[in-house]
Structures are given as C-alpha cells and as structure tokens.
Amino acid sequence: MIKGSCLCGQVTYEIFGDVGEIVHCHCRTCRKAHGAAFSSVAAVSDSDFALHGKSLLRSYESSPGKNRYFCSCCGTQIYAKREGTEHIILRLGSLDDDPRTVEKNHIWVSQKAPWYAIDTPLPLCLEFE
Q1: Residue numbers of the domain that contains 89
Q2: Residue 19 neighbours by CB distance under 10 Å
Q3: Does 122 reside within a domain?
Q4: pTM for this entry
Q5: Which of 38, 57, 82, 127 has a CA that sits 20 to 30 A from residue 23's CA?
Q6: What is the count of structural domains for the chain?
Q7: Which candidate, 33, 43, 128, 29, places its Cα nearest to that of 92?
Q8: Residues in contact with 35: Cβ distance below 8 Å, sequence separation at least 6, in sequence order
Q9: DSSP 3-state percent helix, strand, coil across the chain (nearest 5)
C-alpha cells in the first residue's frame, strides 16, 4: 500500500495497486495550478484508490471534461480526473511514500516556463502524446 496526503493532513489516500509511469507535464494549466515549472503525475486505477476526507475536496474544471481536485483547507492538489476514464491522474507531490515506479518523459515542453532549462535523458514531447 502507498499512502499520500495534503499539506494540512485532513485529506489522505491509499493506493492498493500499481502507480503508472511518471510524466512531468509542462503545460500552462499544470504550471499555473501548481505554481511550479511543471507537475509530476502518474495514473492510478480508480479501483486502487481510496480517499479519506473527501468532504474537504473541491474541484475546478481546468479544461472541458477534466477536473482538478484539491484540499479546500490547504490547497494541495491531490488528483485530476477526466470524464469517461477509469483512472485518476495522481499529483505526485502529495505522496507520503515511494510510488515504486519510474519516470517516463516530459510532456508539453512547447509550453514550458522560459526560465526553466530541462536537463534530462528522458524523452521530451513538444505536445501530449
């Protein structure tokens, strides 16, 4: 089991299955939502994700059909969910444990912050694949 939580600790979760490969997203909405150069995310099956403190979650539809869920007390982004999928997009900054997975690539580098230099052997995708 892998555990995670928000900054204030009132929203927690457990993952009972595998965490997908790590993707670092440089799109404008991820940068704005996280206040950072990029967002590190991975897919987790809906059936493997147990959330506690759900009443404190709020969401924002950042693009059509995609909602970002965050703690209403401290603002920590926990996950995103696209309509019609059977997985969540876990925000890895909220993890308390090692996800036991590997980095895959950087995506949307065409929208990366101009002040950030990517220095990595990982593949760089200008847009989302």
Answers
A1: 2-111
A2: 21
A3: no
A4: 0.88
A5: 57
A6: 1
A7: 43
A8: none
A9: 15, 40, 45
The H or E element that residue 102 is part of is none
- Which residues lie closer than 8 Å to 37 by C-beta, 6 or more apart? 26, 31, 112, 113, 115, 116
- Paired sense of beta strands 103-107 and 22-25, if any: parallel
Cβ proximity of 84 and 48 under 8 Å: no
Q: pLDDT digits over 86-109, tens only?
A: 999 999 999 999 999 999 989 999
CATH number for position 67: 2.170.150.70
Q: For residue 125, what pLDDT is reported?
A: 79
Contact predicate 12/5, CB 8 Å: yes
Instruction: State the CB neighbour count (10 A cutoff) for residue 118.
Output: 13
The pLDDT assigned to 94 comes to 97
Please identify which residue in the block is written with the tokens 């929203």. 11
Rg of the chain on CA atoms, in Å: 14
129 has a pLDDT exceeding 70: no
